[in-house]
């Protein structure tokens, strides 16, 4: 049974104006898929990278990787989900900006009763990102002091709360006093306002000259050198995003001169490559949400038709916390 739904598609790369609301067919799910009638969709910087062509993908295509909803149909080989289940996903093929769609079942997890559709849609990609950063890329034990850029963003506010839950001192960076206060309210130990303060000098002050063992950097080009200068010898630079543009033209010798540093460019997909790994990461995330250790701050809500305006707000640093598209 095919159904017709509204979805966002792009036919060329460009600004927010290339996002078009169109009608698409949703066929019956394949054996390894489920059909999800979506309730809320999460917005992320990676959506903008695909819109502009920074991350290439054959055109035309949809956008978005993260949403929540109710299972409407189940493929023949799917065992862990059934019709009517409340579910979410944060690592699907492109195309989450839609009223309904088919998703590979191994990307989909059930949502606990005490987590809402809006929370789940805002949480999955960002929350699973923090899970792999803090629990897999550099496994925080508690007691560390770390640096996390853009601490008042969607990923950053979850990171602040998760660090606090682990007993980790998170030093955040933010661009305004208001954003710094928001990160602090969410559990950051200290926040550096980089528009007014020297990040490296402040990190040295806060750590009594020792600096930090790990920097989590989703900003990219603008913070690359600053991040390296905040690391202690043999520290790890985790470059996980490009909000200011990609890091390019790196001379590896800089890692030697700044203290035999390590650098990694991880992505979520590698860390949740199987259903088992996806479920384990999601269970740790939802466990903290259920215990009220992590609450998701949804700063902005837009209709599906206004996805372009939502992306413009995100790219223009006009948002705090998470941004979602609502479908009810």
Descriptive notes:
With 328 residues, the chain is α/β, with parallel strands linked by helices. Strands 3, 4, 5, 6, 7, 14 and 15 form a seven-stranded mixed beta sheet that branches. Strands 10-9-8-11-12-13 form a six-stranded parallel beta sheet, sandwiched between helices. Strands 1-2 form a two-stranded antiparallel ribbon. Strand 8, helix 3 and strand 9 form a beta-alpha-beta unit. The chain folds into two domains: 175 residues, Medium-chain alcohol dehydrogenases, catalytic domain (Quinone Oxidoreductase, Chain A, domain 1); 125 residues, NAD(P)-binding Rossmann-like Domain (Rossmann fold, 3-Layer(aba) Sandwich). The radius of gyration is 20 Å and the shape is globular. It contains ten helices and 15 strands. Helices cover 30% and strands 27% of the residues. GO terms for molecular function: mRNA 3'-UTR AU-rich region binding; NADPH binding; quinone reductase (NADPH) activity; zinc ion binding. This is Quinone oxidoreductase. Keywords: NADP, Oxidoreductase. It holds the Pfam family ADH_N. It comes from Parapusillimonas granuli.
Oligomer category: single chain
Overall, the morphology is: globular
Beta-strand proportion? 25-35%
* CATH homologous superfamily heading of the largest domain: Medium-chain alcohol dehydrogenases, catalytic domain
Mean pLDDT value? 94
Class by alpha and beta content: alpha/beta
Distance between the termini: 23 Å
Keywords:
Quinone Oxidoreductase, Chain A, domain 1; single chain; alpha/beta; Rossmann fold; 2 domains
């Amino acid at each position: 049974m095919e159904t017709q739904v509204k979805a966002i598609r792009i036919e060329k790369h460009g600004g927010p104006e290339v996002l078009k609301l169109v009608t698409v067919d949703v066929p019956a799910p394949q054996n390894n898929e489920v059909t999800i009638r979506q309730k809320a969709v999460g917005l992320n910087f990676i959506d903008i990278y695909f819109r502009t062509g920074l991350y290439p993908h054959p055109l035309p295509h949809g956008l978005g990787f993260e949403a929540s909803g109710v299972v409407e149909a189940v493929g023949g080989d799917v065992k862990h989900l059934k019709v009517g289940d409340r579910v979410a996903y944060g690592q699907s093929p492109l195309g989450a900006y839609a009223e309904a769609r088919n998703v590979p079942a191994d990307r989909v997890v059930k949502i606990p009763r005490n987590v809402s559709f809006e929370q789940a849609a805002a949480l999955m990609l960002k929350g699973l990102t923090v899970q792999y950063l803090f629990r897999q890329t550099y496994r925080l034990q508690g007691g560390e002091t770390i640096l996390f850029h853009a601490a008042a963003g969607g990923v950053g506010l979850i990171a602040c709360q998760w660090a606090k839950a682990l007993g980790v001192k998170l030093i955040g960076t933010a661009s305004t006093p208001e954003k710094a206060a928001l990160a602090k309210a969410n559990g950051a130990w200290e926040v550096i306002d980089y528009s007014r303060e020297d990040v490296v000098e402040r990190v040295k002050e806060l750590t009594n000259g020792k600096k930090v063992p790990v920097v989590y950097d989703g900003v990219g080009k603008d913070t690359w050198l600053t991040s390296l200068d905040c690391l202690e010898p043999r520290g790890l630079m985790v470059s996980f995003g490009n909000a200011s543009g990609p890091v390019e033209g790196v001379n590896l010798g800089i890692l030697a001169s700044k203290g035999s540093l390590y650098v990694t460019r991880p992505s979520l997909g590698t860390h949740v490559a199987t259903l088992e790994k996806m479920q384990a990461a999601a269970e740790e995330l939802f466990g903290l949400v259920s215990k009220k250790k992590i609450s998701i701050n949804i700063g902005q809500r837009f209709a599906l038709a206004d996805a372009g305006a939502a992306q413009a707000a995100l790219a223009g640093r006009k948002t705090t916390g998470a941004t979602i598209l609502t479908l009810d």
